[in-house]
Amino acid sequence: MAExxxxxxxxxxxxxxxxxxxxxxxxxxxxxxxxxxxEEIRVPVFEHTEVFLRSVGDTTDVVQxxxxxxxxxxxxxxxxxxxxTAGVIRSAIEKxxxxxxxxxxxxxxxxxxxxxxxxxxxxxxxxxxxxECIGAAAPNADAEVIALAKQVLTTVGxxxxxxxxxxxxxxxxxxxxxxxxxxxxxxxRDDLCDTCxxxxxxxxxxxxxxxxxxxxxxxxxxxxxxxYLCRDCRDHFEAVQRHxxxxxxxxxxxxxxxxxxDYYTRTVFEFVSGDIGAxxxxxxxxxxxxxxxxMGGKPTPSLGFAMGIERLMLLLEAQKTELPLSAGxxxxxxxxxxxxxxxxxxxxxxLRAEGFRxxxxxxxxxxxxxxxxxxxxxxxxxxxLGDNELLNGTVNLKxxxxxxxxxxxxxxxxxxxxxxxxxAALDALTDTVEQAGF
Length: 438
What we know:
- The protein is of the alpha+beta class.
- Helix content is 40%, strand content 20%.
- Strand 12 (331-335), helix 12 (338-353) and strand 13 form a beta-alpha-beta unit.
């Protein structure tokens, strides 16, 4: 029975107060994506398991070790999404989006699920923001998606972030590279971890992404993919770099980047930070031109990226980025007596309809306890509503920060509160300007 009061391992509660930071981050992400023409898509949290087997790839850790898969009551194999791209592409094929005007630009935010060892910035239930640009083959599309990722990170307040890019070629030129990798790793086979020994036979490129220190050291001296690119892939990668320079985006070419999922082709990229230890990758993505054809749709070039929100919040905390808390309470109404309590309900409805954040007593507290509560919820203003106020038809509007009070008729409270909030906001702005030395 003790487990009933504990969250499942690898999950986390986002509590009131903290959730306002998440809402701010998510809102900024979606608004930034909108600047580039991306519209939000919402797909189911679970899919037929085959969706991920055919897209993510059965040689990846995600499919081999991490997916939450179960049979439903109809005997169908169902998997909680470990990432968004497969579900978005399934939707684009099923709903015919790839048959309309291209490119289709979608963005998303929501939860994903992977069974892996919980650690800082890596949970079993985690949240991602990302985009998919479906139907764009040109290299400037790669640069635009990368530019969007950078602007999202900048907009939410991330500092000291660096971009690393690579090209892993197309299926044709990758054949020679995979052969070279297989030959190289075969000479060190006995030193590889058991997982990488299996990867050596099935997909040697996965060894480049292994987290084992020994495998990582061996991979550091492996052949590099950029030496094996065909002319078309080389030209595409060089054009991507030109467009990034034209957009004023700094980058480093890193031949070790392969990304962790099998569907990537050509351009792959990561934004990394040195401020969050081992979990340095904040955003990753790339091109996946063969994925839609692989999933049964007509071949359609596409690309995208995803960033983990937990890891992003960890980075913002490490960089001491200040995120505003909840807007809080504009007015707390403190009723005294049954008649006042009824009037408070009326006033709350009126003020909330005008867009004010208003709270009142729901626990039958005395006046002193209500004032303490108003202070705890950081109410900007308070009004005590008792028999005298109801008889006189006036109330005292109290500024909880300064202690100043002003009298106003009860039926003019909405306008009085608006005026008070506007004056307080102007005063705060003036203080900020003066402190900045203007």
